[in-house]
Specification:
Strand content: 15-25%
Low-confidence stretches: none
Number of strands: 5
Mean pLDDT: 90
Helix content: 25-40%
Strand order of the largest sheet: 3-2-1-4-5
Distance between the termini: 25 Å
Length: 168
């Protein structure tokens, strides 16, 4: 069902005019919906937190986040809980760490598609900054292109996203 598991990752790439930056986004494992993505100078804990907030504001709180083993996500230590994992625990979201890129197949395929399509669209639209790229991604590309051509119906209807916590 939509909202059960969201795969999150970052993709460093030359997105426009020789400018390398990182797109962080999440993709719903059941539907391939991409609720939100944002561009940053580098991949970081702050970026993951901002993107998770964007997802929660648009869809709700996912039950599970499937992420890589980056240290800021808590993937390198089995003994300590990372700040990200504590935050997710307070939201009631379980964090699962993938052990390989292949295990995150859906989000890896997302990057291949976006690196092909977005680079061309950014060039056509004259996108040359992180702010403009994030705006175009979320207001034009995801709702008009991605949602209509790349998402599917979940096997089970209904949403498992939980409502956004009050006051947050």
């Amino acid at each position: 069902q939509a909202g059960y598991m969201l795969q999150m990752d970052g993709s460093k790439h030359v997105w426009w005019q020789g400018k390398e930056c990182c797109l962080i986004a999440g993709i719903d494992d059941a539907t391939s919906d991409v609720p939100y993505g944002q561009f940053f100078p580098t991949e970081s804990l702050e970026g993951y937190i901002r993107v998770l907030r964007g997802v929660i504001e648009r869809r709700g709180v996912p039950r599970v986040l499937y992420v890589d083993r980056a240290s800021w996500l808590g993937g390198l230590s089995d003994e300590e809980t990372s700040q990200f994992e504590r935050m997710c625990s307070e939201l009631g979201t379980r964090v699962i760490h993938a052990h390989s890129a292949e295990a995150k197949g859906r989000v890896e395929r997302l990057w291949a598609t976006l690196q092909d399509r977005l680079v061309s669209e950014f060039r056509l639209e004259g996108v040359t900054s992180i702010e403009k790229a994030t705006g175009y991604l979320n207001t034009t590309f995801l709702p008009e292109t991605w949602a209509t051509k790349f998402t599917v119906q979940a096997e089970n209807p209904g949403l498992l996203y939980r409502p956004r916590p009050e006051g947050k």
